């Protein structure tokens, strides 16, 4: 692939073009779009984890302001039950605690909430199972893991290689259920009028929600419009439609001509917006006396929901990370009466690389090798999985640059030696990786306006990442014009088709479409176009993925302080060094990287959704009980990157950066905790009790 762009805007740290609107309250989020005479919805949620609704008593709820009460008996019928999670109010079945079983539509949110609280639901309760145990006999082997990876892989003879290895590691690591908590809760305004369904939705994919909800409601996609110009975070939880979308659509269909507003409460988000599945991961490593891996096995047990399967791809990074001639990976599911797990920033890589990179640290200790040197010795020349050449693997460069910046050379490899007053001090390192995806299907149009600006249209999503700005920069360079001459339109399914802001694929996919449209525009209309000149282009298939292995890499460094008496853990310093192709906008990119690393810090020390299996209920389902790292937890955190341009990824030479920042961050912290204390914590989060034992 040739480099189509002469980077003039790309690479510059432009401020967010929508930033001023955001701080002035002029950038509407889903719930804030002005609509006339809105109604408000509040759901009734199941109080059992499994069973049937046998009666719903709405008799006491007919007070002024209540417009309608929807139940499975009177709700409009949906058309497709292919996705059972979205089959809302269509039957009496209860599949998980907190499932929507009724909803009140009222003139104010207060009336809706009060009325919903007075709806009486009678259940026939059945025995449920909400406990993830790896030893259960009925684990299921999924056909594929998310989104379409092989469930198991095998290369060579792992058992034989382990049996003869000079050094062996065999440990089990666990990561808990975790929940996405974007600042903006999931919210939808739904309006059914003139045979058209309009959703103002907080989503990572306007076109995805349109397609899904059209199918669920039995509508032509052209009858559905999804509007989402600004989104306050998503991390994957807004990457697909969830039950609140279906419920909002049902409500709109029930009160034609009137918009219905539905914002999930923070507590409701812990039920219906997906979560990172808990994992139990056994890792076995075999190496020769020099630390060269001879065998690598990564076997995962995790949970899914009976109502819909989601199988996280937890072990896939282990397939490509290191050169081990004998490898195996596997995924097994406990199918439970729980809400449906889904995407959370780097699903698969995040929990998988926690386990794998702590295991590698254990191997380094067992071999008496520096953990950076161990990784360098096992760096594969080509992708061990596919055999293809890397489009640009520079993990070693990241490790070395990080070591230099972090001051790794003064580190004593022995644990528990350094002290600052009452605090034990340690440092740790871990690798990071994330695939580079370009999803086919995105389309862009470019039209020259009478204001002598180029209107660039694509239904992309900016979920806080900086896509508004980065796409403007890409369009400017592709057209060879100043950024001021570009007027971008995104966040609307009436715009040309755009794939999801997920899998760190957004800029790669949408940017490719914009570059293609700009190239076509210049070819047809030259550099002095007349008003109204217009061109479009579609990305029908991803570029180089058939010839090269496209992955980004990084090195994560952390310093931790552990209080000798209380076990309190602080992370005063984090550094990430990334190899992620060309960086479109250093300002927003840095924000993405350190945002991911902060989420990794949060994962390492705080985040855990505590499931009370007796009730099938996450008991700490709010921001008081579910601790997320805040400013006070984050000290000196920095992210840098190698100056790169990937000639195989896309016309911009970039590889996507939304997710890699979290990958490996928790492992670096866990490895630093070991270095500080000599205690190996293999179960996240690393809380004081675990280092005091
Ligand atoms: Mo990301 S979890 O692919 O939205």
Give the key terms.
693 residues, alpha+beta, Aldehyde Oxidoreductase, domain 4, 3 domains, 7-stranded mixed beta sheet, 5-stranded mixed beta sheet, 14 helices, 28 strands, 23% helix, 25% strand, binds dioxothiomolybdenum(VI) ion
SSE order and pairing:
Blueprint: H1 19-23, E1 39-45, E2 51-57, E3 66-71, E4 93-94, E5 100-106, H2 109-118, E6 120-125, E7 144-145, E8 149-150, E9 153-155, H3 158-164, E10 167-175, E11 187-193, E12 196-201, H4 206-217, E13 224-227, H5 243-254, E14 260-263, H6 266-272, E15 279-287, E16 293-305, E17 326-336, H7 349-367, H8 371-377, H9 395-406, E18 418-420, E19 423-435, E20 443-448, E21 454-457, H10 467-479, E22 486-489, H11 506-525, E23 534-538, E24 551-563, E25 569-579, H12 586-605, E26 611-612, E27 617-618, E28 636-641, H13 665-677, H14 688-692
Parallel strand pairs: 1-14, 12-13, 16-17, 21-22, 25-28
Antiparallel strand pairs: 1-5, 2-4, 2-6, 3-5, 7-8, 9-17, 10-15, 11-12, 11-14, 15-16, 18-19, 19-24, 20-21, 20-23, 24-25, 26-27
Dioxothiomolybdenum(VI) ion is lined by residues 204, 235-236, 239, 343-345, 347, 502-503, 659.
